[in-house]
Amino acid sequence: MRLLIVEDEKRLAASLAGGLRAEGYAVDVVHDGAEGLHRATEEPYDLVLLDIMLPGMNGYRVCAALRAAGYDVPILMLTAKDGEYDEAEGLDTGADDYLTKPFSYVVLVARVKALLRRRGRGAASPEVRVGDLRVDTAARRVFRGEEEVALTSKEFAVLEQLALRAGEVVGKAEIMAHVWDFAYEGDPNIVEVYVSALRRKLGAERIHTARGAGYRLVAAP
Question: Is there a contact between 33 and 54 (Cβ–Cβ < 8 Å)?
Answer without folding.
Answer: yes
